Amino acid sequence: MPDAFDFEKKLVELETEIAELRAEPEAPRTRERIARKEEELERERQKVYSSLTAWQRTQVARHPKRPHTRDLCRLLFADFVELHGDRTYGDDPAVVGGLARFEDRSVVVIGHQKGRDTREKLARNFGMPHPEGYRKALRLMQLAEKFRKPVVTFIDTPGAYPGLAAEERGQAEAIARNLRAMAGLRVPIVAVVTGEGGSGGALAIGMGNRVLMLEYSVYSVISPEGCAAILWSDAGKAPDAAELMRMTAPDLLRLGVIDAIVAEPIGGAHRDWDATAASLRAALRLQLDELRPKSADELVGERYEKFRRIGAFEETALPRPH
User: Fold this and answer.
1) In angstroms, rounded to a whole number, what is the distance separating the alpha carbons of residues 252 and 261?
2) Helices within the chain (DSSP H only)
């Protein structure tokens, strides 16, 4: 079981035992033992993944073998044509996007791209976009609006790149411009958090009419390590911070930040890309079908109200004792 987590120790032991049994000469008794071990493995996997902590979910969301945007484009869309450049500075490999067909409709797809091996991670800047990445995303969204195509975005980034060059080229302004543009975009937008949704770098392509999250993804204003470093001057307290931040999909659904959770295979999306894609395809179909008949004014108005409601609470006075 490559890239296993600490909390999967028991699962690794069972998988190793099953592999050893399969290497033995085939016999009815051996087959029975394998079947029992496989049943035990399935029960243990259900037990482990039904009680993950927020920090454990964060680890799953960061797994290096989770499907990234380019993988999802291959699995979900036909005729994907990637478009490059922001027409101002250059092309940012940390953001990919282009035109595609999703079943019976044309869409514009935009998403973060982290990379897998060291070489690709460096080339993609670990999925942390520069300003030109967000300007490329904006250009594609404006193209979608011009030709009245829905926008689908895939969010998977630790956050926007905080380096000197990014700041010199207007990182904050690029994010703010995207937020303003998406607020008024007159076509449907469906945003999906597929892994790690971090800070304004995630929100800059995340202002959708519908916001979905894969089951084991996380979405927050800051990383648990960053939060722990600020609150307690100790990044090692990241597990405590993750628990307090309410950054998991069930927490955010309960708080009204997202609209739906997309189921993943037991063990995470990295274990079965095809099953993950099947769940995501069904969720996208449902959301796009619901948004299709809405007018441009309805789409803008509903999106505005959706984000205005986030974080809004009413205080009520306690009744006075008699």
Assistant:
1) 10
2) 9-23, 28-49, 54-61, 69-76, 118-123, 131-146, 164-168, 171-183, 199-203, 224-232, 238-245, 249-255, 273-291, 296-309
Candidates 203, 286, 208, 216; CA nearest to 251 is 216
- Cβ contact 145:300 at 8 Å: no
Residue 168 is predicted with a pLDDT of: 94
Which residue do the tokens 């307090």 mark? 244
Q: Which residues contact 82 (CB under 8 A, 6 or more apart)?
A: 96, 97, 98
The pair of structure tokens assigned to 95 is: 């953001």
Report yes or no: 74 and 101 within 8 Å, Cβ to Cβ.
no
Structure tokens belonging to residue 264: 């993943």
The answer to whether 132 touches 86, Cβ cutoff 8 Å, is yes
Residue identified by tokens 């995207």 is 178
Q: Is the pTM of this model over 0.85?
A: yes
pLDDT, one tens digit per residue, over 9-32 is 878 788 888 888 777 777 677 778
Helix, strand, or coil (residue 154): strand
- Rounded-to-integer distance, Cα 108 and Cα 97, Å: 7
Domain boundaries 58-309, CATH class: alpha beta
What type of residue sits at position 227? C
Which residues lie below 8 Å from residue 87, measured CB to CB, with a gap of 6+?
Answer: 135, 139
Dihedral (Cα; 280, 206, 67, 140), 10-degree rounding: 100
**Would you list the domain boundaries of the chain?**
6-51, 58-309
Phi, psi angle pair for 274, to nearest 5°: -65, -40
CB 174 within 8 A of CB 145: no
> Which among 199, 103, 189, 116 is positioned nearest to 154, based on CA atoms?
189
Q: What is the pLDDT of residues 146-180, one digit of tens each?
A: 999 999 999 999 999 999 999 999 999 999 999 99
| Residue 278 CB partners (closer than 8 Å, separation 6+) | none
Q: Is the pLDDT of residue 318 over 80?
A: no
- Taking alpha carbons only, the member of 264, 262, 252 closest to residue 284 is 262
